[in-house]
Amino acid sequence: MTAAGSKAIVIGGGVVGAACAYYLRQSGWQVTILERGRFGKGCSHGNCGFVCPSHVLPLAVPGAVRMALGSLFRRNAPFSIKPRLDPTLWRWLINFARRCNQRDMLASGRAIQALLTSSRRLYDELMRNEDFDCEWTAGGLLFVIQSSEAMAHFAHTDSMLRSEFNLSAERFDGPALTDLEPALKPGLAGGWLYRSDAHLRPDRLMASWQRILTAQGVDIREAVEFKDFVRSGNRATGIVTSNGELSADACVVAAGAWTPTLNQQLGLRIPIQPGKGYSITMRRPTRCPTLPLIFEEHRVAVTPFQAGYRLGSTMEFAGYDTSLNPQRLELLRDAARHYLHEPLGEPVEEEWFGWRPMTYDSTPIIDRCPSLRNVLIAAGHNMLGLSMSPATGKLAAELLGEQPPHLEVAPYAVTRF
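The structure corresponding to this sequence follows.
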């Protein structure tokens, strides 16, 4: 398809939709973004802002089922499932369990790594070439380990990451860790620093995307709900929205965790579950970390911003539950108290949750819809949508423009499910 002058509609105004719109526009498409709420205010708003090539491993690793089952009976576990009769959830969990083996872990890891590595390079290009104001900091990411047992376990993981993925980290033991990051308490076992990682402030990234895309002629329409496609054979000639019909030469479905609600329109059964994550944004404490941190044993992340400070993570499978669970927020605070001299700042600026689009193989879908060949699905980025978005957007533009893709696309096929 010739891109110049063709009309593309992107369904979803999150970070993946923004990147798809950008690369489509760069390729000559006329682009409209439709967002059912407000642009950039979903899961792209309050996450921890990591751009992390280090995060190549999927959630489905050997031993993950045993750990998950054990966490179900612990009140303060970072992973939880809200009990309910939901066949789609139980199918997802069964398929997840089947992938908890070395072979599938490595296969998913290589697909994840390709997107992460490409996106990390593309972020450098974006920050050079566009006027982003998002506190971009390429200073690395520090995994902090509390116990000697966990330190030994991570040493095994580090060895595997080096041999299988050519990923290296710098090891810091005991006092060397607090010399590196004085905000940490003494007595911790150690840490591992991935210098290739970066971080930014997500809300400011999305504000920059909105400004940049608008200046380039992308039409961003908020509070517009997608209803259906207008079909002609195996192609979509437009879409039906809550505000009427729009014509289109191609569409991108970048609806994140909401993508399964479009299964009927797509003619698919997309196995994405909403994995609820939480964050608390505060004023910076006096002894604020200089590096972004992950407390590996507690699965909690810390991001220092220029004028703020965020604790985030946990994983709650509770469907599309809109409540803000105070117990999950307290888990973030409790974890930070184990590691930091000043774990909290005052005042609290925002308590937040978002639904991550979780696939059971931790790998996104970037593929044409089988029944509508000019509709591309770009969804299921799990906890790495911000990290993977530039490469996803570039692939979307390449595939819809019938250009050679810069990555092998087979691992992201929707037909794998």
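Residues 102-129 form the longest helix (28 residues).
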